[in-house]
Protein backbone atom coordinates (compact mmCIF):
# COMPACT_ATOMS: atom_id res chain seq x y z
CA UNK A 1 0.00 0.00 0.00
CA UNK A 2 1.01 3.61 -0.48
CA UNK A 3 0.75 6.20 2.34
CA UNK A 4 -2.87 7.20 1.72
CA UNK A 5 -4.04 3.59 1.45
CA UNK A 6 -2.33 2.70 4.72
CA UNK A 7 -3.91 5.61 6.62
CA UNK A 8 -7.36 4.93 5.18
CA UNK A 9 -7.12 1.18 5.91
CA UNK A 10 -6.22 1.91 9.52
CA UNK A 11 -9.09 4.36 9.98
CA UNK A 12 -11.52 1.95 8.34
CA UNK A 13 -10.41 -0.92 10.62
CA UNK A 14 -9.17 -2.96 7.64
CA UNK A 15 -5.87 -4.73 7.02
CA UNK A 16 -5.69 -3.61 3.44
CA UNK A 17 -7.46 -1.34 0.97
CA UNK A 18 -6.77 -0.56 -2.69
CA UNK A 19 -7.65 2.28 -5.03
CA UNK A 20 -11.38 2.54 -5.82
CA UNK A 21 -12.53 0.65 -2.70
CA UNK A 22 -15.23 2.50 -0.77
CA UNK A 23 -14.61 2.60 2.96
CA UNK A 24 -16.19 4.07 6.06
CA UNK A 25 -13.42 5.72 8.03
CA UNK A 26 -13.17 7.14 11.52
CA UNK A 27 -12.30 10.84 11.65
CA UNK A 28 -9.72 12.23 14.11
CA UNK A 29 -10.35 15.95 13.59
CA UNK A 30 -13.18 17.77 11.81
CA UNK A 31 -13.10 21.47 10.99
CA UNK A 32 -15.40 24.14 9.66
CA UNK A 33 -15.16 27.93 9.50
CA UNK A 34 -17.41 30.98 9.72
CA UNK A 35 -18.63 30.43 6.16
CA UNK A 36 -19.30 26.69 6.27
CA UNK A 37 -20.32 25.99 9.88
CA UNK A 38 -23.86 27.49 9.59
CA UNK A 39 -24.87 25.27 6.63
CA UNK A 40 -23.29 22.29 8.45
CA UNK A 41 -25.36 23.07 11.56
CA UNK A 42 -28.55 23.19 9.47
CA UNK A 43 -28.07 19.61 8.30
CA UNK A 44 -26.64 18.45 11.64
CA UNK A 45 -29.73 19.60 13.54
CA UNK A 46 -31.93 17.44 11.33
CA UNK A 47 -29.88 14.39 12.34
CA UNK A 48 -29.23 14.74 16.05
CA UNK A 49 -28.73 17.27 18.83
CA UNK A 50 -25.32 16.22 20.13
CA UNK A 51 -21.94 16.18 18.38
CA UNK A 52 -19.98 12.92 18.49
CA UNK A 53 -16.99 14.41 20.30
CA UNK A 54 -16.66 18.15 21.04
CA UNK A 55 -12.88 17.79 21.55
CA UNK A 56 -12.40 16.64 17.96
CA UNK A 57 -14.19 19.54 16.33
CA UNK A 58 -12.34 22.77 15.51
CA UNK A 59 -14.17 25.94 14.50
CA UNK A 60 -12.34 28.94 13.04
CA UNK A 61 -13.51 32.43 12.07
CA UNK A 62 -11.39 33.47 9.10
CA UNK A 63 -13.27 34.11 5.89
CA UNK A 64 -15.08 37.29 6.93
CA UNK A 65 -13.35 38.40 10.08
CA UNK A 66 -14.26 40.97 11.26
CA UNK A 67 -17.71 40.58 9.71
CA UNK A 68 -18.13 42.62 6.55
CA UNK A 69 -21.91 42.26 6.11
CA UNK A 70 -24.91 41.78 8.40
CA UNK A 71 -25.19 38.28 6.94
CA UNK A 72 -21.66 37.28 7.94
CA UNK A 73 -22.14 38.81 11.41
CA UNK A 74 -25.25 36.65 11.75
CA UNK A 75 -23.33 33.54 10.62
CA UNK A 76 -20.75 34.18 13.33
CA UNK A 77 -23.46 34.49 15.99
CA UNK A 78 -24.90 31.15 14.87
CA UNK A 79 -21.46 29.51 15.19
CA UNK A 80 -20.78 31.03 18.65
CA UNK A 81 -24.12 29.70 19.93
CA UNK A 82 -23.51 26.25 18.43
CA UNK A 83 -20.07 26.05 20.08
CA UNK A 84 -21.55 27.01 23.46
CA UNK A 85 -24.41 24.54 23.20
CA UNK A 86 -22.16 21.68 22.04
CA UNK A 87 -19.34 22.57 24.45
CA UNK A 88 -16.82 22.90 21.62
CA UNK A 89 -13.81 24.57 23.20
CA UNK A 90 -11.63 24.60 20.09
CA UNK A 91 -13.18 27.73 18.65
CA UNK A 92 -10.84 30.39 17.23
CA UNK A 93 -13.08 33.41 16.87
CA UNK A 94 -10.92 36.38 17.76
CA UNK A 95 -8.75 36.75 14.70
CA UNK A 96 -6.33 33.90 15.45
CA UNK A 97 -5.91 33.34 11.73
CA UNK A 98 -6.81 31.21 8.73
CA UNK A 99 -8.08 27.70 9.55
CA UNK A 100 -5.34 25.95 7.56
CA UNK A 101 -2.66 27.79 9.50
CA UNK A 102 -4.40 27.71 12.88
CA UNK A 103 -4.96 23.93 12.94
CA UNK A 104 -1.30 22.92 12.62
CA UNK A 105 -0.08 25.91 14.64
CA UNK A 106 -2.39 25.11 17.57
CA UNK A 107 -1.43 21.44 17.55
CA UNK A 108 -4.53 19.85 16.02
CA UNK A 109 -2.63 18.11 13.21
CA UNK A 110 -0.83 14.80 13.79
CA UNK A 111 0.97 12.59 11.27
CA UNK A 112 -1.06 9.58 10.08
CA UNK A 113 -4.33 11.07 11.35
CA UNK A 114 -7.49 11.55 9.28
CA UNK A 115 -8.75 15.12 9.11
CA UNK A 116 -11.73 16.49 7.21
CA UNK A 117 -12.94 20.04 6.90
CA UNK A 118 -15.62 22.02 5.14
CA UNK A 119 -13.11 23.90 3.04
CA UNK A 120 -11.39 22.75 -0.11
CA UNK A 121 -7.88 23.60 1.10
CA UNK A 122 -8.14 21.20 4.04
CA UNK A 123 -5.64 19.16 1.98
CA UNK A 124 -2.92 21.44 3.48
CA UNK A 125 -2.29 19.15 6.48
CA UNK A 126 -0.83 16.45 4.23
CA UNK A 127 2.45 18.35 4.73
CA UNK A 128 2.48 16.73 8.20
CA UNK A 129 1.78 13.23 6.90
CA UNK A 130 -1.95 13.33 7.70
CA UNK A 131 -4.67 12.26 5.27
CA UNK A 132 -6.76 15.41 5.02
CA UNK A 133 -9.40 16.48 2.57
CA UNK A 134 -12.25 18.91 2.09
CA UNK A 135 -15.90 17.88 2.46
CA UNK A 136 -19.13 19.67 1.68
CA UNK A 137 -21.22 20.93 4.60
CA UNK A 138 -23.73 18.07 4.27
CA UNK A 139 -21.05 15.38 4.57
CA UNK A 140 -19.42 17.27 7.40
CA UNK A 141 -22.75 17.36 9.29
CA UNK A 142 -22.68 13.55 9.28
CA UNK A 143 -19.14 13.63 10.63
CA UNK A 144 -20.21 16.01 13.41
CA UNK A 145 -23.00 13.57 14.25
CA UNK A 146 -21.19 10.24 13.91
CA UNK A 147 -17.43 10.81 13.78
CA UNK A 148 -17.01 8.94 10.53
CA UNK A 149 -17.30 9.45 6.80
CA UNK A 150 -17.29 7.42 3.58
CA UNK A 151 -14.43 7.74 1.14
CA UNK A 152 -13.46 6.17 -2.13
CA UNK A 153 -9.82 5.23 -1.85
CA UNK A 154 -8.10 7.46 -4.42
CA UNK A 155 -5.61 6.32 -7.04
CA UNK A 156 -2.19 7.71 -6.11
CA UNK A 157 0.30 9.61 -8.21
CA UNK A 158 3.91 9.54 -7.06
CA UNK A 159 5.46 12.97 -7.46
CA UNK A 160 9.26 13.01 -7.11
CA UNK A 161 10.83 16.45 -6.75
CA UNK A 162 14.63 16.64 -6.77
CA UNK A 163 17.25 19.35 -7.11
CA UNK A 164 18.12 22.67 -5.50
CA UNK A 165 15.78 25.61 -6.00
CA UNK A 166 17.54 28.62 -7.57
CA UNK A 167 17.47 32.05 -5.92
CA UNK A 168 14.02 33.75 -5.88
CA UNK A 169 12.32 30.41 -6.57
CA UNK A 170 10.32 28.69 -3.85
CA UNK A 171 7.85 25.91 -3.10
CA UNK A 172 5.06 27.99 -4.72
CA UNK A 173 6.92 27.71 -8.02
CA UNK A 174 7.27 23.97 -7.55
CA UNK A 175 3.54 23.44 -7.12
CA UNK A 176 2.58 25.87 -9.91
CA UNK A 177 4.89 23.95 -12.22
CA UNK A 178 3.38 20.63 -11.13
CA UNK A 179 -0.15 21.96 -11.78
CA UNK A 180 0.99 23.23 -15.17
CA UNK A 181 2.20 19.70 -16.01
CA UNK A 182 -0.83 17.82 -14.64
CA UNK A 183 -3.46 20.39 -15.71
CA UNK A 184 -6.34 21.71 -13.60
CA UNK A 185 -8.22 18.41 -13.88
CA UNK A 186 -5.18 16.12 -14.05
CA UNK A 187 -5.28 15.12 -10.41
CA UNK A 188 -9.05 14.77 -10.04
CA UNK A 189 -9.87 12.53 -7.05
CA UNK A 190 -6.29 11.33 -6.88
CA UNK A 191 -3.80 11.33 -4.04
CA UNK A 192 -0.54 13.16 -4.74
CA UNK A 193 2.25 11.52 -2.77
CA UNK A 194 5.37 13.71 -2.69
CA UNK A 195 8.93 12.41 -2.45
CA UNK A 196 12.43 13.56 -3.32
CA UNK A 197 15.31 15.54 -1.82
CA UNK A 198 13.73 18.96 -2.54
CA UNK A 199 10.66 18.03 -0.48
CA UNK A 200 12.84 16.49 2.26
CA UNK A 201 14.83 19.72 2.58
CA UNK A 202 11.76 21.97 2.89
CA UNK A 203 10.50 23.70 6.02
CA UNK A 204 6.92 23.04 7.19
CA UNK A 205 5.95 26.51 5.84
CA UNK A 206 7.22 25.62 2.37
CA UNK A 207 5.71 22.13 2.40
CA UNK A 208 2.29 23.48 3.36
CA UNK A 209 2.30 25.72 0.27
CA UNK A 210 2.57 22.59 -1.87
CA UNK A 211 -0.05 20.40 -0.19
CA UNK A 212 -2.36 23.43 0.08
CA UNK A 213 -2.55 23.70 -3.70
CA UNK A 214 -3.08 20.05 -4.68
CA UNK A 215 -6.81 20.77 -4.89
CA UNK A 216 -6.02 23.16 -7.76
CA UNK A 217 -5.43 20.12 -9.98
CA UNK A 218 -8.46 18.40 -8.44
CA UNK A 219 -6.59 16.11 -6.04
CA UNK A 220 -8.36 14.45 -3.12
CA UNK A 221 -5.29 14.90 -0.94
CA UNK A 222 -1.57 15.55 -1.03
CA UNK A 223 0.77 13.79 1.35
CA UNK A 224 4.41 13.91 2.47
CA UNK A 225 6.47 11.93 4.95
CA UNK A 226 7.25 14.27 7.89
CA UNK A 227 10.91 15.34 7.69
CA UNK A 228 13.17 16.49 10.52
CA UNK A 229 11.97 20.11 10.45
CA UNK A 230 8.36 18.98 10.46
CA UNK A 231 8.94 16.71 13.42
CA UNK A 232 10.57 19.64 15.26
CA UNK A 233 7.55 21.83 14.46
CA UNK A 234 5.31 19.13 15.95
CA UNK A 235 7.54 18.69 19.02
CA UNK A 236 7.33 22.44 19.69
CA UNK A 237 3.60 21.82 20.04
CA UNK A 238 4.12 18.82 22.33
CA UNK A 239 3.12 16.41 19.59
CA UNK A 240 5.52 13.50 19.95
CA UNK A 241 3.20 10.51 20.21
CA UNK A 242 2.45 9.54 16.61
CA UNK A 243 3.29 7.05 13.90
CA UNK A 244 4.94 7.99 10.65
CA UNK A 245 3.39 6.20 7.70
CA UNK A 246 5.71 5.31 4.84
CA UNK A 247 4.78 3.46 1.65
CA UNK A 248 5.54 -0.23 1.16
CA UNK A 249 8.46 -0.98 -1.18
CA UNK A 250 6.04 -2.41 -3.74
CA UNK A 251 3.35 0.28 -3.21
CA UNK A 252 1.13 0.89 -6.20
CA UNK A 253 0.89 4.20 -8.02
CA UNK A 254 -1.16 4.99 -11.09
CA UNK A 255 1.72 7.02 -12.47
CA UNK A 256 5.07 8.49 -11.40
CA UNK A 257 6.20 12.03 -12.27
CA UNK A 258 9.79 13.24 -11.92
CA UNK A 259 10.52 16.94 -11.51
CA UNK A 260 13.93 18.52 -11.30
CA UNK A 261 13.98 22.08 -9.93
CA UNK A 262 17.63 23.03 -10.57
CA UNK A 263 16.63 25.43 -13.36
CA UNK A 264 13.11 26.32 -12.26
CA UNK A 265 12.29 30.02 -12.71
CA UNK A 266 9.68 31.94 -10.69
CA UNK A 267 6.32 30.85 -12.10
CA UNK A 268 3.16 32.89 -12.73
CA UNK A 269 -0.35 31.45 -13.15
CA UNK A 270 -2.09 33.81 -15.56
CA UNK A 271 -5.84 34.53 -15.66
CA UNK A 272 -8.18 32.71 -15.35
CA UNK A 273 -6.88 29.21 -14.57
CA UNK A 274 -4.32 27.91 -12.11
CA UNK A 275 -2.74 25.69 -14.78
CA UNK A 276 -2.17 28.64 -17.14
CA UNK A 277 1.42 28.88 -15.92
CA UNK A 278 4.53 30.43 -17.47
CA UNK A 279 7.98 31.64 -16.39
CA UNK A 280 7.83 35.16 -14.92
CA UNK A 281 10.01 36.50 -17.75
CA UNK A 282 7.33 35.64 -20.31
CA UNK A 283 4.73 37.86 -18.63
CA UNK A 284 7.16 40.49 -17.30
CA UNK A 285 5.95 44.06 -17.87
CA UNK A 286 2.21 43.42 -17.38
CA UNK A 287 0.86 46.43 -15.44
CA UNK A 288 -0.71 45.64 -12.05
CA UNK A 289 -2.47 47.85 -9.53
CA UNK A 290 -2.92 45.48 -6.62
CA UNK A 291 -0.45 43.14 -4.95
CA UNK A 292 -1.55 40.62 -2.34
CA UNK A 293 0.71 38.82 0.09
CA UNK A 294 -1.03 36.31 2.32
CA UNK A 295 -3.56 33.43 2.43
CA UNK A 296 -3.37 29.80 3.50
CA UNK A 297 -0.95 29.29 0.60
CA UNK A 298 1.69 31.98 1.25
CA UNK A 299 0.82 34.04 4.31
CA UNK A 300 3.28 32.33 6.59
CA UNK A 301 6.33 33.74 8.35
CA UNK A 302 8.82 32.65 5.70
CA UNK A 303 6.66 34.18 2.97
CA UNK A 304 6.58 37.55 4.75
CA UNK A 305 10.33 37.32 5.35
CA UNK A 306 11.01 36.58 1.66
CA UNK A 307 8.88 39.53 0.57
CA UNK A 308 10.53 41.83 3.13
CA UNK A 309 13.96 40.97 1.68
CA UNK A 310 12.87 42.52 -1.61
CA UNK A 311 10.92 45.42 -0.09
CA UNK A 312 13.62 46.56 2.35
CA UNK A 313 14.47 50.19 1.60
CA UNK A 314 12.02 50.27 -1.34
CA UNK A 315 8.59 51.87 -1.78
CA UNK A 316 5.46 50.37 -3.28
CA UNK A 317 4.73 51.97 -6.67
CA UNK A 318 2.34 54.94 -6.35
CA UNK A 319 -0.30 53.26 -8.57
CA UNK A 320 -0.29 50.02 -6.59
CA UNK A 321 -1.70 48.99 -3.23
CA UNK A 322 0.15 46.16 -1.53
CA UNK A 323 -2.07 44.28 0.89
CA UNK A 324 -0.42 42.01 3.44
CA UNK A 325 -2.48 39.71 5.58
CA UNK A 326 -0.47 37.34 7.81
CA UNK A 327 -2.00 33.85 7.98
CA UNK A 328 -2.19 33.93 11.77
CA UNK A 329 -1.81 36.17 14.79
CA UNK A 330 1.30 34.23 15.79
CA UNK A 331 2.89 34.92 12.41
CA UNK A 332 1.89 38.58 12.72
CA UNK A 333 3.48 38.74 16.17
CA UNK A 334 6.66 36.98 15.02
CA UNK A 335 6.91 39.35 12.06
CA UNK A 336 6.60 42.32 14.41
CA UNK A 337 9.26 40.90 16.72
CA UNK A 338 11.79 40.45 13.92
CA UNK A 339 11.16 43.82 12.25
CA UNK A 340 9.48 42.44 9.13
CA UNK A 341 6.28 44.37 9.74
CA UNK A 342 8.32 47.55 10.20
CA UNK A 343 10.03 46.97 6.85
CA UNK A 344 6.67 46.41 5.18
CA UNK A 345 5.15 49.53 6.76
CA UNK A 346 8.10 51.65 5.66
CA UNK A 347 7.46 50.51 2.09
CA UNK A 348 3.87 51.86 2.28
CA UNK A 349 2.18 48.50 2.67
CA UNK A 350 -1.40 48.09 3.95
CA UNK A 351 -1.24 45.51 6.74
CA UNK A 352 -4.58 43.75 7.27
CA UNK A 353 -5.64 41.52 10.13
CA UNK A 354 -4.97 37.77 9.91
CA UNK A 355 -7.65 35.98 7.91
CA UNK A 356 -8.62 35.19 4.33
CA UNK A 357 -8.89 38.88 3.44
CA UNK A 358 -9.21 39.58 -0.30
CA UNK A 359 -8.32 35.99 -1.35
CA UNK A 360 -11.88 35.12 -2.30
CA UNK A 361 -13.12 38.60 -3.09
CA UNK A 362 -15.36 39.03 -0.06
CA UNK A 363 -13.76 42.12 1.48
CA UNK A 364 -10.60 44.17 2.10
CA UNK A 365 -9.37 44.65 -1.43
CA UNK A 366 -12.28 43.81 -3.73
CA UNK A 367 -11.34 44.66 -7.32
CA UNK A 368 -13.20 46.74 -9.90
CA UNK A 369 -13.38 46.16 -13.70
CA UNK A 370 -9.98 46.02 -15.41
CA UNK A 371 -7.99 45.96 -12.17
CA UNK A 372 -5.06 43.54 -12.18
CA UNK A 373 -3.63 41.82 -9.11
CA UNK A 374 -0.49 39.82 -8.58
CA UNK A 375 -1.12 37.59 -5.60
CA UNK A 376 0.42 34.82 -3.50
CA UNK A 377 -3.01 33.17 -3.11
CA UNK A 378 -4.11 29.94 -4.78
CA UNK A 379 -6.94 30.78 -7.18
CA UNK A 380 -7.16 33.13 -10.15
CA UNK A 381 -10.63 32.14 -11.39
CA UNK A 382 -12.78 34.66 -13.22
CA UNK A 383 -14.11 37.11 -10.64
CA UNK A 384 -12.23 35.49 -7.75
CA UNK A 385 -11.20 38.81 -6.19
CA UNK A 386 -14.12 40.96 -7.32
CA UNK A 387 -15.32 42.06 -10.74
CA UNK A 388 -15.56 39.40 -13.46
CA UNK A 389 -13.63 41.92 -15.54
CA UNK A 390 -10.65 41.94 -13.19
CA UNK A 391 -7.53 39.78 -13.51
CA UNK A 392 -5.56 37.77 -10.98
CA UNK A 393 -2.00 36.50 -11.52
CA UNK A 394 -0.60 34.04 -8.98
CA UNK A 395 3.03 33.89 -7.97
CA UNK A 396 5.53 33.58 -5.14
CA UNK A 397 6.05 36.22 -2.39
CA UNK A 398 9.16 37.75 -4.01
CA UNK A 399 7.52 38.19 -7.41
CA UNK A 400 4.60 39.88 -5.64
CA UNK A 401 6.97 42.16 -3.71
CA UNK A 402 9.05 43.03 -6.80
CA UNK A 403 5.93 43.73 -8.87
CA UNK A 404 4.49 45.93 -6.10
CA UNK A 405 7.63 48.10 -6.34
CA UNK A 406 7.69 48.47 -10.12
CA UNK A 407 3.92 48.44 -10.82
CA UNK A 408 4.36 45.66 -13.36
CA UNK A 409 4.99 41.94 -13.15
CA UNK A 410 8.69 41.71 -12.36
CA UNK A 411 11.33 39.06 -11.84
CA UNK A 412 12.68 39.67 -8.30
CA UNK A 413 16.23 39.25 -9.59
CA UNK A 414 15.83 42.70 -11.18
CA UNK A 415 15.31 44.54 -7.88
C1 LIG B 1 -15.58 29.50 1.26
C2 LIG B 1 -14.94 28.16 1.15
C3 LIG B 1 -16.01 27.11 1.12
C4 LIG B 1 -13.94 28.08 -0.01
C5 LIG B 1 -13.30 26.71 -0.16
O1 LIG B 1 -13.83 25.66 0.16
O2 LIG B 1 -12.21 26.62 -0.66
C6 LIG B 1 -12.85 29.13 0.14
O3 LIG B 1 -12.03 28.93 1.25
C7 LIG B 1 -12.02 29.24 -1.11
O4 LIG B 1 -10.80 29.30 -1.03
O5 LIG B 1 -12.61 29.30 -2.21
S1 LIG C 1 -7.13 32.06 2.46
FE1 LIG C 1 -8.30 31.88 0.53
S2 LIG C 1 -7.98 29.81 -0.18
FE2 LIG C 1 -7.38 29.86 1.97
S3 LIG C 1 -9.22 29.22 3.08
FE3 LIG C 1 -9.24 31.46 2.96
S4 LIG C 1 -10.46 31.94 1.13
FE4 LIG C 1 -9.88 29.76 0.98
Automatic annotation (TrEMBL):
The catalytic activity of this protein is classed by the Enzyme Commission as 4.2.1.33
Q: How is the cofactor bound?
A: Binds 1 [4Fe-4S] cluster per subunit.
Q: Does the keyword Protein biosynthesis apply?
A: no
Q: Where does [4Fe-4S] cluster bind?
A: 296, 356, 359
Q: Can you cite a GO biological process for this protein?
A: L-leucine biosynthetic process
Q: Which UniProt keywords apply?
A: 4Fe-4S, Amino-acid biosynthesis, Branched-chain amino acid biosynthesis, Iron, Iron-sulfur, Leucine biosynthesis, Lyase, Metal-binding
Which InterPro entries does the annotation name?
Answer: Acnase/IPM_dHydase_lsu_aba_1/3, Acoase/IPM_deHydtase_lsu_aba, Aconitase_4Fe-4S_BS, Aconitase_4Fe-4S_dom, HAcnase/IPMdehydase_lsu_prok, Homoacnase/IPMdehydase_lsu, IPM_dehydratase_rel_enz, IPMI_cat
* Keyword Ribonucleoprotein on entry: no
Question: What's its catalytic activity?
Answer: (2R,3S)-3-isopropylmalate = (2S)-2-isopropylmalate
A molecular-function term among this protein's GO annotations: 4 iron, 4 sulfur cluster binding
What residue stretches are annotated with the Aconitase/3-isopropylmalate dehydratase large subunit alpha/beta/alpha domain? 5-282
Q: Which SUPFAM superfamilies does the entry mention?
A: Aconitase iron-sulfur domain (SSF53732)
Which pathway does the UniProt entry assign to this protein? Amino-acid biosynthesis; L-leucine biosynthesis; L-leucine from 3-methyl-2-oxobutanoate: step 2/4
- Report the HAMAP family cross-referenced here: LeuC_type2
Q: Summarize subunit and interaction data from the UniProt record for this chain.
A: Heterodimer of LeuC and LeuD.
Q: Which family does it belong to?
A: Belongs to the aconitase/IPM isomerase family. LeuC type 2 subfamily.
**NCBIfam families assigned:** hacA_fam, HacA_Meth, IPMI_arch, PRK00402.1
What is this protein identified as? Answer: 3-isopropylmalate dehydratase large subunit
Amino acid sequence: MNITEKILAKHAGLDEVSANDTVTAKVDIAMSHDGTTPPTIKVFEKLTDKVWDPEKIVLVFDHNIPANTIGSANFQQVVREFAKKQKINNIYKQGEGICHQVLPEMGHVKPSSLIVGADSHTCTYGAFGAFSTGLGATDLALVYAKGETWLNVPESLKINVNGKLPEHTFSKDVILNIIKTLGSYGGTYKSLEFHGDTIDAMSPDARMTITNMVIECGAKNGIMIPNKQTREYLAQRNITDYEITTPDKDAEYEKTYDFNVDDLQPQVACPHNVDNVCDVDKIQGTTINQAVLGSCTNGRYEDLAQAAEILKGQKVHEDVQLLVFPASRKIYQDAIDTGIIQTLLESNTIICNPGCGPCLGAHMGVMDDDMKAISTTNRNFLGRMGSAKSYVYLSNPQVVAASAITGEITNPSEI
